[in-house]
């Protein structure tokens, strides 16, 4: 591999991880009792794969590819998600949420307020909050997996821990 720089997002401060963990942990009752009624398993997997593709976590990608296939997401849909596109076969009632998920991840959990308002208007507050919670959970997984790869990268003096398309994940300074 000619790429020699680690470019994926990862938790670079423990406080960021603990902040995200506290947010998700505080919602565990909602996750267990209410979320399954609001968001089907295949919809959750589509959301998770969309965020994972933006963040490039190879561990989450492998796990959620298998889970997506088990839940009924087609190989064609997954191929499009892995290319960074919202699949053309996406159920009509999920398309806006997947576009939001991509926007949310690309903007590091800081979506445009108007796009958030449109999500709430389309899905209602409770379902929009559930969608964002799914995104937050996979964000934590992605950044934790990428942190593991970053540590491997550093300990191996750059010989391991990169992904094939690492340059795709370069974070632009704003």
CATH class category name: Mainly Alpha
For the record, the count of structural domains works out to 1
| CATH-scheme architecture | Up-down Bundle
The computed structural class is mainly alpha
- The number of E-state strands comes to 0
Beta-strand percentage range: under 5%
Radius of gyration computed on alpha carbons: 16 Å
* CA-based shape: globular
Report low-confidence residues grouped into runs of 5 or more: none
Q: Report the order of strands and helices.
A: HHHHHHHHH
Largest sheet: none
Q: Give the assembly state of these chains.
A: single chain
CATH topology: AhpD-like
Span between termini: 28 Å
CATH superfamily: AhpD-like
User: Could you report the average pLDDT, rounded to the nearest whole number?
Assistant: 92
Helical segment count = 9
Fraction in helix? 55-70%
Question: How are the elements arranged and paired?
Answer:
Elements: H1 14-25, H2 28-33, H3 35-38, H4 41-55, H5 58-71, H6 75-82, H7 95-106, H8 113-123, H9 125-155
Helix pairs in contact: 1-9, 4-5, 4-7, 4-9, 7-9, 8-9
Give a written overview of the molecule:
Helix 4 runs antiparallel to helix 5 (58-71). This protein has one domain (14-160): AhpD-like (Up-down Bundle), CATH 1.20.1290.10. It has 174 residues and is an all-alpha fold. The radius of gyration is 16 Å and the shape is globular. It contains 9 helices and no strands. The longest helix is centred in the C-terminal third of the chain and has 31 residues, at 125-155.
